[in-house]
């Protein structure tokens, strides 16, 4: 029986996947030479973000503008189809996919909350039964080409909590599980009743979701 009062929010990169899926997607789409050239073009922003001097979303947009900027929606849809078939399955952690299925079997609402683009996360999520994806969204110009900016803020850190709260509106979950692996998941983990961050303990059991709050 579905228990919509319990929500399981999963980060994707490093949590469900073994690595940064966006880098793999871009590199597999345009090839290594153009990937490297684009990274060099955006290097000032990328280094600034690493040093905390440039907003992460700004740096990510600069990188994508330098690599896949100008690509049409139709081209990107074709790129996504190849990525979903050829590359992404090999990046998925089996134990985390099993965890998603556990939550679904218990009737919990499962939501993917990621800084990577919904462009490929939505079709992947649908393929494993995840109905809701809260993610970074690419913006397209009047000619339906990616213009190197985002339609919504980069879904990282505090933005993850804002997206979750906007999604559930005035019906917050009775119990919130959160799964992450990095600093970008800190606020979501703090908002959760049960939080698991990769490298900080074993996965919590799902049999006692009504127990007092605890984190691992």
Topology summary:
Layout: E1 6-10, H1 21-30, H2 32-41, H3 43-50, H4 56-67, H5 73-86, H6 94-105, E2 109-117, H7 118-127, E3 132-136, E4 138-140, E5 146-150, H8 158-168, E6 175-180, H9 186-191, E7 194-197, E8 214-215
Parallel strand pairs: 1-2, 1-6, 2-3, 6-7, 7-8
Antiparallel strand pairs: 4-5
Transmembrane segments: 35-54
Organism: Pandoraea vervacti
Keywords: Hydrolase, Membrane, Transmembrane, Transmembrane helix
Walk me through this protein's architecture.
Pfam families: HAD (PF12710). GO terms for molecular function: hydrolase activity. This is HAD family hydrolase. The chain has 216 residues and is an alpha/beta fold. The chain has one domain (6-215): HAD superfamily/HAD-like (Rossmann fold, 3-Layer(aba) Sandwich). Helix content is 43%, strand content 18%. It contains 9 helices and 8 strands. It has helices spanning 21-30, 32-41, 43-50, 56-67, 73-86, 94-105, 118-127, 158-168, 186-191, and strands at 6-10, 109-117, 132-136, 138-140, 146-150, 175-180, 194-197, 214-215. The strands form 2 sheets. It has a 6-stranded parallel beta sheet, with helices on both faces. Strands 4-5 form a two-stranded antiparallel ribbon. Helix 9 (186-191) links the parallel strand 6 (175-180) and strand 7. Helix 2 (32-41) crosses helix 4 (56-67). The longest helix has 14 residues, at 73-86. The model is unreliable at 211-216 (pLDDT under 50).
Quick structural summary:
The chain crosses the membrane at residues 35-54. The chain has 216 residues and is of the alpha/beta class.
